[in-house]
User: Fold these one by one.
Assistant:
Number 1:
Amino acid sequence: MNTIVTDVIQKLISGHRLSIEEFKVLIDNNCEELRRELALKADSLRKNIFGNHIYIRGLIEFTNHCKNNCYYCGIRAGNGNIVRYRLSKEDILDCCKQGYSLGFRTFVLQGGEDSYYDDDRMEEIVSAIHSSFPDCAITLSLGERSYDSYLRLYKAGAERYLLREETSNEAHYKKLHPESMSFSNRMECLENLKEIGYQTGCGFMVGSPFQTTENIAQDLAFIQDFKPHMVGIGPYITHADTPFANMQNGTLEDTLLLISILRLINPRLLIPATTSLGTIHPLGREMGIKAGANVVMPNLSPISVRKKYMLYDNKICTGDESAECITCINTRMESIGYKVITDRGDFPFK
Ligand code: SAM
Ligand code: FES
């Protein structure tokens, strides 16, 4: 590695902060040696705070209806080739009950932007989970809603919210989304979530169409300033029934490098080793953990709907074998020296 790269690494390790130009140096020089060095540092920083513990979140994909038409997403409104579904409050509570008995203490409700789940319905669902499982954290990932809606759901018992910015560059955002979607609104939603008091997660797809090195560096700089509690990144993977069907997938190598950089930006961050990372490579999630991730999100959705929440082609954990998700994750984590723990796994506030 040349001295410019070595200097940038030292600066990141000592100050947990870089300029956009410096982030670009790391991204442009991505190689095995650099990834190994950053992963070693990221892993040791993470171990200082979290030991070898890995948090699990039970993911409940409760609706694949969506009013949006993000060009990359398999459940976009314009995809007429999928069977749509919605889970009832009872279905969702059943998923939580099953998850609770398996040791989950965080439930993540994720879905498309589906107006059927208006504030009254969502509030009822969140309140029901909160009162049935008072020792569990509720995370929502429902896309963009109003300040008042976020506030109501927070008061009903949801404490965390995941909303990826997808890109922090407006011109790039416009290449990924139709005119009807607004970059500034997405950013405002993130600010609102944080202001209300949610543990807030942002993030982006690695290698999304038209993404440049500059865009990724801008995202890292945004994350530095926004100071989220969680950051979800995973490779972009193409879906045959979207306008981006012929685009290239993001890479394992870029995602691993970026996970390590995120850990070095903030050692306390909650960073999932995502399903898309496990889809791009059979051992992607294990490699993500070794690079600095500390969360996995096994699927708790009913087996009957899993294939219908197909965000991208070949998504893993959607077949019959997925009933065993948690056993599979435990074994995978133990095989690399980590331990899945049943804990709410909150952000470690100082
Ligand atoms: N509707 C909510 C929202 O917009 O935040 C949550 C659901 S959305 C499907 C969850 C995430 O899936 C998105 O933030 C996006 O980054 C990711 N995603 C969608 N399509 C993808 C693809 N083709 N490859 C990888 N990730 C994808
Ligand atoms: Fe709405 Fe993907 S387009 S969830």
Note: The first helix runs from residue 3 to 15.
Number 2:
Amino acid sequence: MSQRVKIKQILLSDKANYEVTVKGWVRTFRNNQFIALNDGSTNSNLQVVVDFENTDPLLLKRITTGAAIGVTGEVIPSLGKGQKVEIKAKHMEIYGDSDPEAYPLQPKKHSLEFLREIAHLRFRTNTFGAVFRVRHALAFAVHKFFNDKGFVYLHTPIITASDAEGAGEMFRVTTLDMKKPPLTPEGEIDYKEDFFGRSTNLTVSGQLEGELGAMAFGEIYTFGPTFRAENSNTARHLAEFWMIEPEMAFYDLKDNMDLAEEFIQYVIRYVLENNREDLEFLAQRLAEEEKQKPQAERSELGLIEKLEFVLNNQFERISYTEAIEILKNSKPNKNKKFQYPVEDWGTDLQSEHERYLVEKHFKKPVILTDYPAAIKSFYMKQNEDGKTVRAMDILFPGIGEIVGGSQREENYDKLVGRMKELHIPVEELYWYLDTRRFGTCPHAGFGLGFERLVLFVTGMTNIRDVIPFPRTPKNAEF
Ligand code: ATP
Ligand code: MN
């Protein structure tokens, strides 16, 4: 047997008249003659031509959609349209049969909802093949970007004892017997008896630990799973999602925004250059979906144009206060079209407001800065005005918030003061506060939700379709 070659490699070159072995899964088998074979390396199938008159009929019968096979044969120029080369089968082997009656993936269009129910098999479709190859490329580009800039990849813990940030929306981690938990004299569950000798949770963010790393390495990033038990069943929220969190010493808010913008543009450029075929497939898919919508709701740009637009245009940077003014005077606000009318300075922006700013008013990504302190986290640097903090959220068309970040409060007294106001236990976070006691410095960072980035880049519309096995309320299948 000749060496196994990936289909992508064969199709990339015009070379013909050489023998190869390919292995993959049958997508279709037409006329007892043409196998469309896919091995996951590319969206394109390789056409295998079978000399059916000289092939064992029992073997032919086993070549069905979904079967795993190996083929050795000669690569020859193809006469059919759609491919430059095909392979003339000399020897075929079946590794695994696939009963066509039982196999859920038929060679036809399936709905995304149906495919979500068979997420264990959906990688074998064109759409999910493309989505998850792009997801992989984005993840690789994330590491490449930070590595090339000299950032240290820091693994922050998944199990944490600190619940400073996510009170109420954390998943508890315990080995206590749920039926008969040990109790304190007061009748409360005694977590001193638990595995870690205290109560622990799954992390909602690696930021606090990330800051500790930044205070030594200068620039770090995390890229790991985070967990939120938020009961919001939306197309933008998962209970388990991946977050990228850089933290940088000696950065102010502007440096932070510059980095975030450069980073997003870098990873998008990376996939435009390296995943063209998959993006073109996804663009076509999206265009077909858009055709189903009424004219007014269709997006003006195709997927690839939309990605190029982000590369070629600076993000709009405005303050929360300016955003409130724009929203107050906006048509939908005056015509009472917003579900939540915008009246007073200080209220949190709803996604309808974010979308108005990005999709209608500016028509490009927007960075909102300097939010009211009251609606942001305790660690954000307080502005001179005594009302706002140096926060920045990046809003994307069709997505809403993709990044949340800030310059961090580096002043010990101010930070402790804010924690006390918010009843955050100062003693428990002594380790976090130590960075402010020993060699504190201006620093900043942000968190980017990886799945929201994948949503934007692939043009998919439900976050459940860009993570292999989504975890959402009442759903942890597979
Ligand atoms: P949102 O208002 O959309 O719930 P958030 O303010 O809770 O977001 P942060 O705590 O700032 O978000 O988290 C940083 C980033 O992580 C967000 O900008 C977003 O991209 C992503 N993110 C947050 N929550 C989720 C979630 N449940 N599922 C997927 N991504 C999320
Ligand atoms: Mn949230």
Note: The chain has two domains: 7-107, 124-169+204-465.
